[in-house]
Write a structure and sequence with these properties.
The complex is a heterodimer of chains A (about 400) and B (about 140). Chain A is about 15% helix and about 30% strand. The longest helix of chain B is centred in the middle third of the chain and has 13 residues. The radius of gyration of chain B is 17 Å and the shape is elongated. The two termini of chain B are about 25 Å apart. The chains are: A alpha+beta (about 400), B alpha+beta (about 140).
Chain lengths: ~400, ~140
Amino acid sequence: MAKTIAQINEKIKKGEVVVVTAEEMIKIVKNDGVATAAKKVDVVTTATFGPMCSSGAYLNLDHTKPKIKLGGGRTTLNGVEAYAGFAAVDICIGATALSEEDPKNKVFPGEFKYGGGHVIEDLIKGKDLKLEATTHGTDCYPAKKLNTLININDVNEAILFNPRNLYQNYNVAVNLSGRTVYTYMGTLMPNLGNANYCSAGQLSPLLNDPFYKTIGIGTRILLGGGIGYVAWWGTQHNPGVKRTKGGTPLSPAGTAAVIGDLKQMDSKWIKGVSFQGYGTSLAVGIGVPIPVLNEEIAKFTAVSDSEIFTNIVDYSKAYPQGISDSLGRVSYEQLKSGKIKVSGKEVLTAGISSYPKAVEIATELKEKIAKGDFLLSQAVASFPGPDSGYKFKSLKVRGIKRGE
Amino acid sequence: MYSKKIVLHFPSGLVNKPIIYRLTKDFDLEFNILRAVVNPEEEGLMVLELKGDEEEYKKAIKYLKDSAVKVQTLSQDVIRDEKKCVHCGLCVGVCPTEAFEVDQISREIIFHQEKCIACGACVGACPYKAMTTKF
């Protein structure tokens, strides 16, 4: 018999809910079968922890006396550029933002010691940050300069927003060239020296809900340890890719945009990162509950690493040149074994997203639900699905004529 | 056979002496240079693996110390900050000696310090700055 989210929430409130992690669900379905598992289990928790470059913190500062309009001016936090093109005291700091003084890749590979991701982590830790701003004065906002220390308690709202997160599957990155390449997929050693992958596989939220049956706009999630929500489908959402018979996409597919209150977050789950030769980013931990409404959903949440496949992509040439070329397909079970074969060569594999952290988050969300501290929400609208025709496009570069 | 990896710091001015030659000639030790930064008139650094008789090895270390070379055992030199490590695995593939291993059950990254040659590849590759070298 099918269940509703309202019925599951009643069970959560009464302390009667049966909640398991996606890892545990695999065994339950294997032992008891889909029908029994669907009856027995109410909620499956999924999670992921990895770098999400498309992350930004939006801050609303208190007004100063006299007032200042940061909008249109230049603002930095600990020397790192913050975007100020909004109202008087709204700013946004992005994960990959850097200071003007950062040597970047002038001495290759650059170290990128401190950037926007680190500013966001320091903010969550409650550290004082140096805010420096210059702008044009106006009649209503006469001040032109502001230098002050601020911390998370000094600001009105502090919001984390990720326009693209929870990637449903991702490439395996390798390097076919003769020199080391430094990428957002980590350091790739020459001549197929290593292979890096970036997905929690069987624990990853959208791989447990391949057709976006329950995860949609309005889904309540655990973002950086605090309450967050799915705000929209993510940028570059690409649901129409090829899938296995079970529905699992064979290449990067769906994404979700997520939002949450930075003031509730814990630096255990949000960390600034530095990718050698590439830049800074923000590692974000997310937990997503999936209500087991029927047998079909129970089956989806039991997906295991051996049933999830992805493509091996060369990051020395194919990826940077935008050439779509796969060097082969491997399962996450093979990737997690520590070695895969690429063009006949045995290659060491490594994760970029942390599986132990994902297990920790899925377990924490499970405990919160079991204790009655986290209720599920019904999505108010669905993501575009595989048959929607919604597609990720490449930019066609058009020449700009003089005078245009 | 006794075998140990050590880090040698040569004070400037000493780099002109054939110190490593004496290790073989006088103490019959086999050496494998894992890393070396030695310039005239500057402080030098060398990471070595020494093999041979344990007694002779001890005498060789005394000889090095008497010659004003600072000697450290290698295991103290590359450190993982357990608070910073998130067990992602980006260190695994860049390590030339496979000193990192993924535990097949917990999926945590095990650091085998005894395999480490202190090349520093993991230090640069770790996005969380969890690996540091101390020479």
